[in-house]
Design a protein that fits this description.
Blueprint: H1 2-31, H2 34-49, H3 58-67, H4 70-84, H5 87-98, H6 100-134
Helix pairs in contact: 1-5, 2-6, 5-6
């Protein structure tokens, strides 16, 4: 009977710990405006991919949007955050991103992400052209 009670107490503790971590991950995603920034990044990729005639069509754009959507990625991304960060680290991230410097970082992130995506997309296009030329 003692073992059963210990198992129940431990599972309840682990569940509460997991819930706390999940709450912190969700807080971090909210304070960082992760969904909004994610959607801007997807739009940037689509804009840059559209420069390639093979990808400049509604079928590709719709598939890419669906495959890379927030709803498609939120569960695995949340799991990654929960596995990668401790409760203390998540709390520190929430605190940082809630601070004036953290908010400045968040406000500038869309522009930084857009410029980064443009550079990466250009390199992807060059790689694809090179690969197509070798065939």
């Amino acid at each position: 009977m003692k073992k059963l009670i210990i198992v129940i107490l431990l599972s309840t503790s682990f569940s509460a710990f997991a819930d706390e971590k999940m709450d912190l991950v969700l807080q971090m995603l909210q304070v960082t405006e992760a969904k909004k920034n994610h959607e801007l990044v997807i739009d940037s990729y689509i804009t840059n991919f559209s420069k390639n005639p093979a990808m400049d069509n509604d079928q590709f754009k719709n598939y890419f949007r669906q495959a890379m959507s927030w709803d498609a990625l939120i569960d695995p991304m949340t799991k990654i955050y929960m596995e990668s960060y401790t409760t203390e680290e998540l709390q520190a991230l929430v605190d940082f991103f809630g601070s004036p410097i953290g908010q400045s970082f968040i406000k500038k992130s869309p522009e930084v992400n857009q410029k980064s995506v443009a550079v990466m997309s250009e390199n992807i296009q060059k790689a694809m052209s090179t690969l197509q030329g070798q065939q």
